[in-house]
Every structure is written in C-alpha cells, then in structure tokens.
Amino acid sequence: MRAAAFCPGHITGFFEICERKDLLSTGSRGAGLCLTLGATSSVVLKDANRQSVRVKINDKEARAEVTKSAVRHLIGKQKVAAQVTTTLDLPQCQGFGMSAAGALSASIAVAKMIGREKHDAYEAAHIAEVENKSGLGDVSALHGGGMTIRQRPGLPPIGRVLRIRGEPEVVLSVMGGPLLTRSVLTNPAKRRAINASGAKKVDEIVRKPTVDELFRLSSEFALETGLASRRIIEAMSAASKLGMASMSMLGNSVFAIGDTTGLKRVLSDFGEVWVCKVDVKGPRII
Q1: How many CB atoms neighbour CB 61 within 10 A?
Q2: Are strands 80-88 and 27-47 parallel, antiparallel or unpaired?
Q3: How far apart are CA 178 and CA 190, in angstroms?
Q4: Residue 135 exposed, middle or buried by CB count within 10 Å (0-12, 13-18, 19+)
Q5: Among candidates 42, 47, 52, 45, which has minimal Cα distance to 1?
Q6: Do residues 245 and 219 touch, judged by C-beta distance below 8 A?
C-alpha cells in the first residue's frame, strides 16, 4: 500500500506552555500562522514478520523520532514495515514546525491506508510531539489552518483554536544554527519568562484578533523573554521599516509581511530567505 500527504509548516509568534497529565490536553496557548511551505510524505506499508518504521528526510536516512512515534501509535501492534519518505521545504529546528509537519503528513498518509480517521492522525502526531518535547502547539494550530490563536491548550476539540482573517505573503529568513525546542522547553528560567509574557499576550490577541496585533505582540514577546539574539533583533528592526516582523518560535529565524520585494532584499543580508503564503487548506492527502 502507498499513500502521500502534504502538511503546511507553522510558525508560532508567542506562546504559553500548558502541561497537563493528559497528553491531548497538554499543549500551548499562543498565536501564529500556517505556511504554504511544509512537508510532503510518501508512505509505503508492507506486511512483514515484525514491525519496523524507517524514515528518510530529504533523501537521507533519519532518526525522525517524532514521525516514527506517530506512525507506531497509528499502526499499533500490526506486523508491517513502514517506509516514510519525507521532503521538507524549510530547514528543521528553525521555528517553522517541520517536526510537526513531517509527523502529521506521514500520519495522515498512514491513517488513509489502514482505514483510520484523519483525527487519529492528528492525535498521533500531537502525542508524539509532546512526548518528544519537540513542540506543543503546532499540530493544534495546523488543525485549524490559516492564521490562528490557540485560545485553549490541547488538541481540538479539547483545545480551542480561533482564526485570524487574511492570507498575506510571508518572507522567512534563517540567520543562525538550529535551535532545539527541547533545550528551551526544559529550561526552568526560560519557561518562567515565556509563561509570564505569553499568557498576557494570548489574552490580548483574543480581545483584538488582527494581523497587526499578532506581529506587535510577537515582537514584544521575543524581546521580553530574551529569546531573540542581537542579530535577530537587528533583522526585526530592519524588516520593520518595510512592514512587520518578529522571531519564529523557536528558531534563529525571522518572519515578516509587508513589501515582499523589499523584505527579501533586506533579510537576505542576514541569511537565507524564502517566500510563501499563509496556508488555509490545512494538511491533506495528495
């Protein structure tokens, strides 16, 4: 059996860590946007003497623990060999939700083949992200698509996701090495700073759910938490003269909207640049 699926990338602008005993209730409150650049996974399932899950990312054999965990969650005790081949449009560990996109695209393809519901794929990917400490809210946001506010933590319908209107072009720039989400989520001081700033900002954007507010609060969050490096602050400042910009959580990267041509030129001085749009279709079989 073979199936393929695409999952958008996702950027979080600001967030609050919300951990619960139940993994489906665990997640984050926050706001961000889904991207037309993401992950495409092709999955082949074959009967086998014992269960195995192998993953290739961009043509290289990969550990891909989040994807493997999600696939195993779906196939249970079935004796099958699963071969996942994933192509990522954006770099990993840079705040673009590639871990979630890879796991969810693979999960949707697997669910299609074994007769499981699409929601089962969302659950598998969300649980895998939380267990591996590679993310908290990406799968919940991708569930809603577009520009989103995660008002209540956890995977919907436990979590509650609101949508901000609009499908702007987005300019992305990476200006440093990978930033492991786990290293931030397991740091007590950073967790305190994130929650002190993030909780207030979610309440603010719920009262005024606009694109301008998303970027204003995101840039404030990046500065207040101390997560933004000097170089990211410089890039945000330069890009803000041509629109609105902030740091992608959690990565050495910036996302911006406004004068796309100008933003591409300015941000290319800081690092590699990509241009995409906000994705409103969500994860899907292709």
Answers
A1: 9
A2: antiparallel
A3: 17
A4: buried
A5: 45
A6: yes
Distance, CA of 11 to CA of 79 (rounded, Å): 36
Q: Indicate if the pLDDT at residue 151 is higher than 90.
A: yes
Q: Are residues 10 and 121 located together in one domain of the fold?
A: yes
Average pLDDT over residues 233-262: 96
At 99, phi and psi to the nearest 5? -60, -50
Specify whether 32 is located in the same domain as 149: yes
pLDDT digits (tens, 9 = 90+) for 248-258: 998 999 999 99
Among residues 163, 181, 203, which one ends one of the domains? 163
Is residue 234 a part of any domain in this protein? yes
With contact defined as beta carbons under 8 Å apart, do 239 and 267 qualify? yes
Q: What is the pTM of this model?
A: 0.94
d(CA 241, CA 120): 44
pLDDT digits (tens, 9 = 90+) for 27-84: 999 999 999 999 999 999 999 999 999 999 999 999 999 999 999 999 999 999 999 9
Q: Residue 213 belongs to a domain with what CATH number?
A: 3.30.70.890
Secondary structure letter of residue 248 according to DSSP: P
* The CA-based dihedral angle spanning residues 256, 185, 66, 114, taken in that order and rounded to the nearest 10 degrees: -90
Cα end-to-end span (Å), the chain? 15
What mean pLDDT is reported for the chain? 95
Range of the domain at 200: 166-277
Residue 136 pLDDT greater than 90, yes or no: no
- Find the DSSP H helices in the chain: 65-75, 98-114, 118-131, 138-144, 181-185, 188-207, 211-224, 230-240, 260-267
Structure tokens at 163: 């949508």
Which positions ≥6 away from 171 have C-beta within 8 Å? 239, 255, 256, 257, 260, 263, 264, 267, 273, 274, 275
